[in-house]
Amino acid sequence: MTRLSDFFLRLAVSFVLIGVCLGYWMGVTHQFLLSPVHAHINLLGWVSMFLYGLFYRAMPLAAGGRLPIIHAVLASVGLPLMMIGLTIQLLGVTSLMAAVPPLMIAGPTMVVLGMAVFAVIVFRATGPAKAAVA
């Protein structure tokens, strides 16, 4: 299932473009308020998504079934929600502050659940019961 791998690899490259542009803007303007957003986009968006893509490329049988789809939805939706909430909070956009708690609950929860689902996928694909995945 290279489609799932391709999805994560393309998503990772999209996130790194956003992260690099944000970092460039912060450097040029000397405005580092959004450093936590920059760091999360680069680590969870670029690094994690790219590693997910490489894993699914190396272990294509692990990309089958419902769990990898659940993982993809949780990871790809959770991070943007979290980054939007964090950005609003850090910038202090008062007109949007009511959105921060739901975003900062849903986003990080989805990211953590996505990582937990990915851990299950990895353990199933690499453990003694890996024949069941195949």
Question: How would the blueprint of this fold be written?
Answer:
Blueprint: H1 2-29, H2 35-58, H3 66-91, H4 100-126, H5 130-133
Structural commentary:
This protein has about 130 residues and is mainly alpha-helical. The protein is built from 5 helices and no strands. The chain has helices at about 1-30, 35-60, 65-90, 100-125, 130-134. Helix 1 packs antiparallel against helix 2, helix 2 packs antiparallel against helix 3 (about 65-90) and helix 3 runs antiparallel to helix 4. It is globular.
Number of helices: 5
Going by helix content, strand content and strand pairing, the class is mainly alpha
How many β-strands, per DSSP?
0
SSE sequence, one letter per element: HHHHH
Radius of gyration, whole Å: 17 Å
Helix content: over 70%
- Biggest sheet overview: none
- Compute the separation of the termini in Å: 12 Å
| Gross morphology | globular
Question: If you average the pLDDT, what whole number results?
Answer: 95
